[in-house]
């Protein structure tokens, strides 16, 4: 069993850290929120007053923070963890951040003899709690192999995408595709509804036809078509519009840097930004269905 430090115990990090504890690892946790720390300590983790005290004996340091600026500050700032992590330890950053920051943090840590992989996840809070996340890893083969048993504790699919930053690029591609599928599914369902079709009947037809896709088949955005999805619970829970808008911003940054043309992604980013600005930021991303309400 490994000695692990876990930094960032929010909606995702909290349940991920609890799964490591349940698997028998020694886990020292830190978050700026005392309540977030208490929730995980209650399940058997330890804590320290400073993150630096948690990381100094750790073989693995896992971070699950909101954005690139938090990751850079936590590891590389003047009082950053870079000054406290043992040489040879492996940092696993599972936050969804821009690949440029990820590469920068990895490079600077490596110069100090500290190994690094980016390992963003897909699967949401449900996957974090159930231990069924997908990890998309960027880093060396050796570091990937070293991290895999730890990641297996929190996920069911662990992919090696390529070198540093590749995990973040894979995550940006996946969420850009997901957003486009959600918008297109919503648009098609609303078209059917406004032409007199029953949403459940139309969903069945398209799911069994060439329009089949994950947002239609298992995460249907039309209220009442499926039980136990956010659309049937007033779009509560699930994956927030604000987070989708953030991830689409990262996808667009990635596109600009590589001179790639991503017209569908650009439109999706605009629609999700507009939806968030209209007060829907905390709702599930399937609430974009309401963008296509037809005039009656
Ligand atoms: P969250 O806001 O719930 O949690 C972030 C945590 O980081 C908070 O508890 C905050 O107190 C803590 N934090 C911030 N700065 C810190 C610091 N300097 N030191 C210690 N702790 C600090 O966010 P989340 O939903 O858990 O998401 C975390 C990351 O995972 C994000 O990058 C997000 O994009 C990504 N992600 C989220 C989901 C999801 O469904 N929520 C799914 C996939 C990926």
Write the layout of secondary structure elements.
Blueprint: E1 3-7, H1 13-22, E2 26-30, H2 34-41, E3 46-47, H3 51-55, E4 60-63, H4 68-76, E5 90-93, H5 99-111, E6 115-118, E7 121-122, H6 124-130, E8 133-138, H7 141-154, E9 155-162, H8 166-194, H9 199-207, H10 214-217, H11 241-257, H12 263-280
Helix pairs in contact: 1-2, 1-6, 4-5, 8-11, 8-12, 11-12
This protein binds nicotinamide-adenine-dinucleotide.
Nicotinamide-adenine-dinucleotide binds at residues 7-13, 30-33, 36, 64-66, 70, 74, 95-96, 121, 124-125, 239, 243.
Account of the protein in words:
The protein is an alpha/beta fold and 296 residues long. The chain has two domains: 3-163, 3-Layer(aba) Sandwich (Rossmann fold), CATH 3.40.50; 169-292, N-(1-d-carboxylethyl)-l-norvaline Dehydrogenase, domain 2 (Orthogonal Bundle). The chain is built from twelve helices and nine strands. The protein has a six-stranded parallel β-sheet, with helices on both faces. Strands 7-8-9 form a three-stranded mixed β-sheet. Helix 7 links the parallel strand 8 (133-138) and strand 9. Helix 1 (13-22) packs parallel to helix 6 (124-130). The structure holds nicotinamide-adenine-dinucleotide (NAD). Nicotinamide-adenine-dinucleotide binds at residues 7-13, 30-33, 36, 64-66, 70, 74, 95-96, 121, 124-125, 239, 243. The site of nicotinamide-adenine-dinucleotide (NAD) has 24 residues, from helix 4 and helix 6.
């Amino acid at each position: 069993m490994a000695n692990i430090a876990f930094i960032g115990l929010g909606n995702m990090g909290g349940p991920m850290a609890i799964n490591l504890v349940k698997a028998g690892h020694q886990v020292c946790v830190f978050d700026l929120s005392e309540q977030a720390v208490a929730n995980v300590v209650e399940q058997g983790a330890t804590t320290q007053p400073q993150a630096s005290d948690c990381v100094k004996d750790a073989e693995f340091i896992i971070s699950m923070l909101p954005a690139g600026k938090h990751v850079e500050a936590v590891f590389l700032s003047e009082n950053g963890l870079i000054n406290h992590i043992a040489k040879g330890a492996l940092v696993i950053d599972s936050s969804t951040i821009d690949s440029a920051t990820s590469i920068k943090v990895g490079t600077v840590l490596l110069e100090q003899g500290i190994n690094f992989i980016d390992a963003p996840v897909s699967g949401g809070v449900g996957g974090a709690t159930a231990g069924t996340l997908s990890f998309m890893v960027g880093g060396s083969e050796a570091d990937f192999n070293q991290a895999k048993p730890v990641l297996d504790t929190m996920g069911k699919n662990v992919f090696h995408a390529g070198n540093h930053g590749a995990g973040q690029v894979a995550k940006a591609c996946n969420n850009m595709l997901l957003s486009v599928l959600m918008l297109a599914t919503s648009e098609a369902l609303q078209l059917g509804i406004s032409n007199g079709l029953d949403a459940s009947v139309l969903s069945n037809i398209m799911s069994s036809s060439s329009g089949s896709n994950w947002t239609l088949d298992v995460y249907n955005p039309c209220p009442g078509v499926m039980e136990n999805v956010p659309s049937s619970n007033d779009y509560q829970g699930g994956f927030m519009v604000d987070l989708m808008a953030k991830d689409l911003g990262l996808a667009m940054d990635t596109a600009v840097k590589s001179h790639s043309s991503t017209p569908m992604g650009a439109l999706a980013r605009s629609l999700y930004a507009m939806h968030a600005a209209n007060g829907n930021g905390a709702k599930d991303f399937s609430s974009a269905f309401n963008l296509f309400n037809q005039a009656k």
